[in-house]
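Check out a protein:
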Amino acid sequence: MIDGNPFSPATPTKWHNITPPPVNATNAVKLAYQAEVNKRAMFALVPHGRRDANGAHNFQCPAQVGNIKCPLVPASKAWPVGTRLAQGPATKSPSGKVCSQKFVKFDATDMPLSQRDLFGTSAWYQSYTRRNLVEGFFGSLKNNGVEGVRPGNVRMRGLVKHGLFIAVATAAANLRHVESFRARNPQAPKRVRRGRPLKTNLHRYKEQINMSGIRQEAFVKAVMAASSPPS
């Protein structure tokens, strides 16, 4: 078990304990840590199927699915060139171990710290940093200096009214964040406009509108001329 998840016995010892970066680490340090953990992730056992009712879960050898090559798995010789070779694999494995069978089951008590994404990988960081973004946005939305969505500021009742108010406030906060980002990053690429293409024959409608106006004006002049007394 490494960081709560089962790994292959062929995992290099240098990756058994990778020290996570401190809280105030720079992005360069965090990316270097993620790069090492991503390399180690290919040796992780791969979940197979769903968990049982009691929390037990079947896992598969990474060499069986093409993540690494191993002499104990003859089919892994066909994996693409560049696939990492298991370091120091044994030529024989005792029965009951992951290297001697295709699947191995772990009980829930064996993996109390297991997570969906392997801890420390880029996928884990992308998933678990969403909480910071959401909490930051909620704090901005509650700021009394701008939208001020907090108890005491909303003086109305009803789910429909509150829902409409929250929708408008959220849209305003999104626009405010976009304008702030543009001001701080003027060189950032703009998002390509999506949706229906602009009608190229719009000028034809304008011409028809203009012509109808001219005809109406000429009609009014003709009626006035016909109804006026003779000179």
